[in-house]
Amino acid sequence: MSNNIGWYARRLRQMSPVEMAGRGADAVRRLAWTRYQVHPGADVGPPPGLLTDRTFPTPLPVGAIEQVSTVAAAGVIASADRILAGDWSLLGTRRPDIAEPDWFLDPVTGHRAPQHTLAFRIDHRDESETGNVKAVWELSRHHHLTVLASAWWLTGNEAYAEVLAEQLRSWWAENPFLSGVHWTSGIELGVRLVSWAWVRRLLHEWPKVEELFDSNPEALAQIWWHQRYLAAFRSRGSSANNHVVAEASGRLVAACAFPWFAESDAWRRDATDQLEKALRANTFDSGVNRELATDYHRFVTELGLVAASEAAAAGWPVDQNTWDLLAASLDAAAALVDVTGRPPRQGDGDEGRALVLDDPELVPWGQLLDLGDAIVGALPWWPSRRATVVSAVAAALLPDRPVVTGRPRRAPQVFSDAGITLLRTSPEDGPEIWCRCDGGPHGFLSIAAHAHADALSVEVRHDGVEVLVDPGTYCYHGEPQWRSYFRSTLAHNTVEVDGANQSVEGGPFLWSQHASTEVTRTDTPEEGVQTWTAHHSGYARLDPALRHERTVSLDPNTRVLTIIDNLTGEAPHSVRLAFHLGPDVEVVLSGSRADLTWRSEAGPVSATLHLANELRWNVHRGETEPPLGWYSPGFGHRVETTTLLGVGAVATALRLSSRLELPATSGAGSGRVSSSVEEARG
Known about the structure:
32% helix; 682 residues; alpha+beta; Beta-galactosidase, Chain A, domain 5; 21% strand
């Protein structure tokens, strides 16, 4: 176990008495379950309570394959061929062993996670014990196997099915009940069950599928073990975020697709109740996910859609409130994207997926919206989408499309409960200016595991090109300095005071003190100036306290975005204002003038940033001690980008005004960003 006693103390302080009691009961249960461990190599017989009727209840209907577009099919087949050739990457790291995987290898560190150790004795937070556990777990979500299954369904090529079957048999043999690292996290078990259900469905016409699943003692034991584990050990309390949704979704999918056990009916009822409650708890009324981490909005919505569709196909539909919530989540997702279909970059993101039946290189957000279109229907204002395999099979599987009413007639710009406001111009009026303003809660639940210290930050894009960027995530485990940087206040387009984060970091997935934010004004008329004002309490803990208020306004007619920061306190503080430029933006700083350039499809675009003389401005790029000037395009990747950092001080009050003028053309245009700082009087 990790010897970080301080972390455990901080973690306990974030738990309620009810949660501590529940976790105590889990600890007792783990001790009792030690005797159930099955060691690799042991003979595995059929689980108790196995039913004699093991008909697979929900195969795809005849003719479903005809609904798949040729482009989507070609993408899946090309991806499956790359798997067979060993040309594959996961979380930014190549996996040349993908055709014959080592299920315990961390390709980042070369470390091999425990295979024979009782799962309850493995500390997956300790990299010296497991390696980078995220990299170890990812392969065992078996998304590459659903790609192979999808390719077999489309082509009948025996090679795809044979490799898939061999890998499943090896995983089942090497990971028996409670042995090794793959039994240490419920979310992994839940996602795996979804993958297995769809592998079985897509291989339904394969002559060897019953031998692989229906009559295979190891397969039957694994499906039963996974459900038994998830029924007993649930994410609870401060950890009941996207994990509990994945656990419930996996349980519901498995209980519907594999109703082969004496417990199946009870598991299905319990999983349905758990999923409906978890989705409601994890989602604002507006449809935005409460973790305020864009990637997890997509992940949770996708999990809910897949599980609800599976349940409907099995004749066990979720309630109407759940369908309404999923439709709201889809509408929010469609409204948040920019003109190119790219979502915001808010909070953590690890590219988690519920189900992968298409080319994984396709934009996941577009796949989500296409799936949503197939299940609940797209609204007229939704962005265009590419047809996918997953949407075709989901539509074929679903008996009837749920009826959802009361959906928005135009794309909303304000999500008050989530504190998200979009200021944007219409694409019909020239290259879109898209600006996300962050005025929401710090995160979800007491630990806010996937939150960043980004209160009052902004993202700005011009015609889809990132001008002012959110840094992304990069990593979770193994590199604490980088984990802290990418979620810090300094890494976002906002103001840092006295070198401190707005919220207090307690660990890589723990915030021990949260900044609260209040939005005091949102005005987004269809014509005219759009305005947003908010302030946060993060620096009230300083001695003496300091208040930060920000107003952002966009004039669509002049195409000017203005950011005004007001800092007020009772004594001097140091301040740093950061502008993080997109990775495609080049900058030349000369005194207080920064010339920005980037290229669009139509040609070069330029802007000028006039920086305040009252602050000392410098260019930072790709620095490591400490980190500054970085951007993560995806989990496991980081690239250098440019940060313009202004350093100064506030005595009692300071007003910072930044003005961004963007061109009305997407190429060969010019714009100007100006920033001024003045001491407030009176």
